[in-house]
What does this fold into?
Amino acid sequence: MIEVTDVMKRFGTAVVLEVEQLSLEAGHCALAGPNGAGKTTLLLLLAGLEHPTRGSIRIGGHAAGSLGARKRVTFVPDQPALFDDLTVADQMAYVARLHGLDEPPPLAWECVEALRAEALTSRFPRGMSKGQRQASGLLVAVSRPFEVLLLDEPTTGLDAKARAGLLDVLGALVQGGSTIVSSTHDDDLLASAGRVFQLEAPSQVSEDSG
It folds into this structure.
């Protein structure tokens, strides 16, 4: 599903990421490493929101950032972009309709239950805590069809029950054949992943387990 070949990303004169080869099929791969190691940069490249200085990234056989790749990928950044003047439920419905659905799929409501976010769906994002925005971003992201889910520090700000619910959701997605790539410092999330890749600043990715 994901093929990364000879990728390097430079901002100005600084090389922030180098990946010789990374191949991922269905399952959960966690990206680990210190701040500045390139975890978020790699997620942005996979999402097609940044372009590599060198090399290629393909999602389901399509170049990252192309229409074919974007149809398959949904992304929850560390600071989710939400509409302050729409409730979370309205944003879920809006994203579903944008992708040809009459309403959010059952998975979205399963996530609401798993994260104990029923009350959150009727709220506007303005004034939400970090954890509430993180949960809301995930609910909106899974309100559309996808094959690849990208998560940047998804457990940040979540309480223990919500974190446990998130792990349950990710496990169900893996069982359903989805490919998940998450960046994290969370030991529980790392332990739940089928594969872990350790990134070291400034450049090289190596497989730690799997």
Observations:
- The longest strand covers residues 14-24.
